[in-house]
Amino acid sequence: MIAPPDPDLVTLLARVADALDRIAGPRPPAPDFECADAFVWQATTGTLSPVARVNRVEIALLRGIDRLRDQLAENTLRFARGLPANNALLWGARGMGKSSLVKAVHGAVNGGAERPPTPLKLVEIHREDIETLPDLMGLLRAEPHRFVVFCDDLSFDGDDASYKSLKAVLEGGIEGRPENVLFYATSNRRHLLQRDMAENERGTAINPGEAVEEKVSLSDRFGLWLGFHKCSQDEYLEMVFGYADRYGLADDRDAVRAGALEWATTRGSRSGRTAWQFIQDLAGRRGRRLDPEAQLLAR
Q1: Domain residue extents for the chain
Q2: What is the pTM of this model?
Q3: What SS3 class is residue 265?
Q4: CATH superfamily assigned to domain 38-228
Q5: pLDDT in tens, 133-164
Q6: Where do the DSSP E strands lie in 102-216?
């Protein structure tokens, strides 16, 4: 015969439960995905902040990366239509438009002639919050919308073990990546970790090969690798004149060309970011305003 519960114990447990509820505070409200097409994940509160106006460049102004642009656009459009698609890692030279391409493709998919039945949502997660990625995935899993979760400048240093959360979410966990979520990341590193991290692992591990393989295998979770390399002078000038023509600044093409080359020389680099910075300077000197929607913040 089971003894009845102790009334004092039941009362005590109820008081403890109430106290825990007060400490935890109210549950965050359910996100309203109809109010915007882009959101930023706030890890501390477990909420999504809508972005009313995404800072992105028109996809037609992204020059010199045509093949990469088409690959990412096709992959994203397939996913938005409910077809199989791959997680994507955009890696390589700085300033060549990696993060700009992600945002531009998202805008092009939602605004194009072949737009999906429902708008594709873009969710940005900051690098320092990557450990909370499983929480974000759990929040999105039950939603009817489709999401591209985007992390800019993703890499891992020192003893940072948060990469394990990413590995589990992408492919390795028991739940895996939700069917309605795709993960895009940009990085200057192809394997997302510093070279000395791999060398340290090789020198201290009992089985060096396995230790290094565990970290390098993270990039293997991305089915689509897009490599961005330093551009040639011709490609750089193509970027410059793409902007100059767009904003009516190319009336004296020889002067624009000479100024753009001098600008790149003084900075020691040619890239999409350098081209846009030159255009900003040129427009400012001419007293011209530029549409903020087209600002290229290449990473």
Answers
A1: 38-228, 233-294
A2: 0.79
A3: helix
A4: P-loop containing nucleotide triphosphate hydrolases (3.40.50.300)
A5: 989 999 999 899 999 999 998 877 766 667 77
A6: 121-124, 147-151, 181-187
